[in-house]
Amino acid sequence: MEQAYTTLSSKGQVVIPAAFRESLGLESGTRFAVRQEGEMLILEPQTLAAKLRKIRELRGLTAGGPSMTDELLEDRRREREAELAKDGW
Q1: Does 8 have pLDDT greater than 90?
Q2: Does residue 20 contact residue 32 with C-beta atoms inside 8 Å?
Q3: Tens digits of per-residue pLDDT, 42-71?
Q4: How confident is the model at residue 1, as a pLDDT?
Q5: Domains in the chain: ranges and CATH
Q6: Taking a C-beta distance cutoff of 8 angstroms, is the pair 32, 13 a contact?
Q7: Residue 35, helix vs strand vs coil
Q8: pLDDT of residue 7
Q9: Are the C-beta atoms of residues 49 and 23 closer than 8 Å to each other?
Q10: Taking Cα atoms as reference points, which of 8, 9, 42, 48 lies closest to residue 26?
Q11: Contact 45/24 with Cβ under 8 angstroms?
Q12: CB 3.0-4.6 Å disulfide test: which of 31, 33, 45, 63 passes with 50?
């Protein structure tokens, strides 16, 4: 991860280095969610690109677990077999 330094102004403003602004697609007027985690301050851009990145990060998070579709289909198959057996098939 690239690292850069900036300074807090007397008005509480921080300049985000150009390389970061460009790589994240940040423009003047971009809104940020700001939160504190321990001794760190986290700035999270609230842009469509940032939201799409978050979705991509979450994609596959449950991979390897049971498929809910497969489980539903299996439940339906068992129900149908039970109905057929009840009807003498």
Answers
A1: yes
A2: no
A3: 998 888 887 888 888 888 777 777 778 888
A4: 62
A5: 1-60 (2.10.260)
A6: no
A7: strand
A8: 95
A9: no
A10: 48
A11: yes
A12: 45
Alpha-carbon distance of 79 to 87, in angstroms, equals: 12
CB-based contacts of 34, cutoff 8 Å, min separation 6: 41, 42, 43, 44
Whole-number Å distance between alpha carbons of 27 and 47: 10
* Distance, CA of 41 to CA of 15 (rounded, Å): 14
Task: Take residue 66 and report the two structure tokens written for it.
Answer: 């049971």
Q: What is the pTM of this model?
A: 0.52
Q: Residue 24, Cβ neighbours under 10 Å: how many?
A: 15
List the structure tokens of 78: 């068992």
Tokens of 69: 């579709």
Matching residue, tokens 């390897």 = 64
Looking at the chain, which runs of residues are DSSP E strands? 32-37, 40-45
